[in-house]
Amino acid sequence: MLDQISIEEELKKSYLEYSLSVIVGRAIPDVRDGLKPVHRRILFAMHELSNSYNRPYKKSARIVGDVIGKYHPHGDSAVYDALVRMAQDFSMRDPLVDGQGNFGSIDGDAAAAMRYTEVRMSRLTSEFLGDIDKETVDFRPNYDNSLHEPSVLPTKVPNLLLNGSAGIAVGMATNIPPHNLSELCDALLLIIDSPDCSVDEVIRRVPGPDFPTGAAIYGGQGLLDAYRTGRGSIKIRGKAEVEQQKKGHELVVIREIPFALNKSSLVEKIAQLIGEKKIDGVSDLRDESDRKGIRIVLELKRGVIPDIVINSLYKFTPLETSFGINMLVVAGNRPALCNLKQVLEYFLDHRKEVILRRSRHDLRKSEERAHILEGLRIALDNIDEVVRIIRASKTPLEARQNLMDRFELSERQSQAILDMRLQRLTNLEREKLLEEYAELLKLIEYLRSILENEEVLRGVIRDEVREIKDKYSTPRRTEILPSLEGIDIEDLIPDENVVITLSRRGYIKRTPLDTYQQQRRGGKGIAGVHTSAEDFIQSFCTTTNHQYLLLFTNLGKMHQLKVHQVPEGSRTAKGMHIANLLPMDKEEFIATALTIREFTPDRYFLFVTRKGMVKRTEIDLYKNVRTGGIRAVNLNDGDELLDVKEVPANAEILLATELGMGIRFSVGDVRPMGRSAAGVKGIALDGKDRVASGVVFGDPERNQVLTVSANGFGKRTDVDLYRLQSRSGKGVINMKVTHKTGHVIGATSVCDTDDILLLTSANKIIRTSVGSVRNVGRAAQGVTLVAMDDGTQVIGFDVADGSNGENASENAS
């Protein structure tokens, strides 16, 4: 009768056995030599073939064949891939294989077929297999019991932390970064001298990983967690620097990239983001990398701030990436999560075991040799009698027995005397034998001291660690930075006064305010933006670099930028098209630009439309802006957004129309509404009249209305001359509009110390003092602010603080 087997129990048992097999025999490295079985078998097969660093290269196919035929019964591609990785200087901090031929690239190119490449062990790898023939490690049968292979290598190198490891097993994974050998040796020496030292003391010797590709890592809590507990996360940043070119051009050059990042994929990602305008201001992208190192070049357009481009690279590309550290290892034939000190302690325990086993082996061999030499010494002291006994004996066996009986020798000593060559009877050979015997006695004493004295054992390990450090250590490649919160991009940009200029066709630029000199009223102005015949300046405002620039479109949407993100341009430059910065519909343009420093509750925006609608909404509702913008106000059919102002709760509003009308009412007449509301009527318009501007009065010192017309006329009027009305009325006369003055293009609140900047359709800009503009009544037509050429008009203006302005200049050009 067949035995009954529970399927559930059998599956559970089989799965556990499979899991353990994958963990121990495939995916997780041994804590002692830092190798997985396939790597260990490759190195042992190369050792067996005498494929060392000082011997000729051998075909990779020869090595792979030996490995899969003798020790690793898997596919040749698995073995060759592991061999290739051990030869790549961008994958291993200190490669274990010296390769000749094409072993792939950091761009992700595959290695040449194994029949074309050649390999041998690196010089460092010789330290992995030293003393393997001295019974220092256990050997186990290979897969078919025909040979034996080492269960671990007797390495002198802390390879697990030196080259790191990554692997995914069943239900668990490991990810250990590479480190610097010199720092690891310093930590080992600390633990040897102070076994009770804390993990933090060890961390001071090993401050962080050291990747073969360099770059920089941010330490902080994530790294401390990894070293203290075995799990943590760090940030890796590639290194980008700015290079100055001729004619003022600047380059952003990436010279180091994060570990395990495919360089070709990084370049493709950057190119994609440049095409999508997420990384702006780049005119050309080139990969100039060669065998000397990485060099990815981004050529910047004139006026672009390099730090903004670098910040965008870190934000949107894998040039900054996270590395999750998980120090899971096989210790005692089972998985274990170790901290930094425990990993090093396991390695030192392994070295102790190797040295003890090596010492026992050497002691046994030395004692055996000393035993032989004692017999030879006796024979040399009694050589005549020895010769006589040998000549009197009938057979070698009889001679051996006679010598044993006469001189109380062992069988091995007696046989050594019989095997001794006659040349050993010379005086010189006798001295050599006695000298060798004396040296052996010293060696035996030293080996016994290692086995019996813990302090001597620690001294041997200490000397080995120092020797490894002196022979193989290299300078650190990866820079360690204390924390990710370093310098904010805005800290690199001065918060200076600038002018934002935006044309109707969407060209925007940022220009230092100092560019525009103050002139006397009536001057012709200096050359401004060079636009095409079909374009003109739509928005014109003064602000500072660190403020938010809120761009409101004629269709009622809002987009948001920081002012410093707007490309800088000269006074006459056309600027960059807004489509390079923001997604815009075909029939959409920026109606008005507004700047604020922060979004806070209990502050309000006032929206004004061309058809006289007004709306008041909390500023705080506009702080979260999507990439495609947000709906700022709903518009009635045929209407469009004209202006947006920030208004205090106790402010008053003046709406000025193109045909010279104006209405003044309290902001309290406009109740607060939601973000998508359409608003209420602010002024009743006659005929084809449209609202030209919305003016906010909240500062008692700014109690004058400056009105500007298309033909360059302007006037100042005290706000008290406009009687306070309820909203939705027709209002009163604001300015006498004639053919001479042209229609009103806008109005604003001013004080005597302000400056006014006016922009003409001839692309001239004049900056003059408000104090030079005469204060008159409501119905006056004003005075000439700027001398207009035939066919030109004033198309925009803004007010700037003129308290620190320069002396007026008559003939600025």
From TrEMBL:
The active site is at Y116. Its EC number is 5.6.2.2. GO terms for cellular component: chromosome; cytoplasm; DNA topoisomerase type II (double strand cut, ATP-hydrolyzing) complex. Residues 28-492 form the Topo IIA-type catalytic domain. Gene3D superfamilies: 3.30.1360.40, DNA gyrase/topoisomerase IV, subunit A, C-terminal (2.120.10.90), Topoisomerase II, domain 5 (3.90.199.10), Topoisomerase, domain 3 (1.10.268.10). A type II topoisomerase that negatively supercoils closed circular double-stranded (ds) DNA in an ATP-dependent manner to modulate DNA topology and maintain chromosomes in an underwound state. Negative supercoiling favors strand separation, and DNA replication, transcription, recombination and repair, all of which involve strand separation. Also able to catalyze the interconversion of other topological isomers of dsDNA rings, including catenanes and knotted rings. Type II topoisomerases break and join 2 DNA strands simultaneously in an ATP-dependent manner. The keyword Nucleotide-binding applies. It is an enzyme of class 5 (isomerase). Belongs to the type II topoisomerase GyrA/ParC subunit family. This is DNA gyrase subunit A. Few gyrases are as efficient as E.coli at forming negative supercoils. Not all organisms have 2 type II topoisomerases; in organisms with a single type II topoisomerase this enzyme also has to decatenate newly replicated chromosomes. GO terms for biological process: DNA topological change; DNA-templated DNA replication. A motif (GyrA-box) lies at residues 519-525.
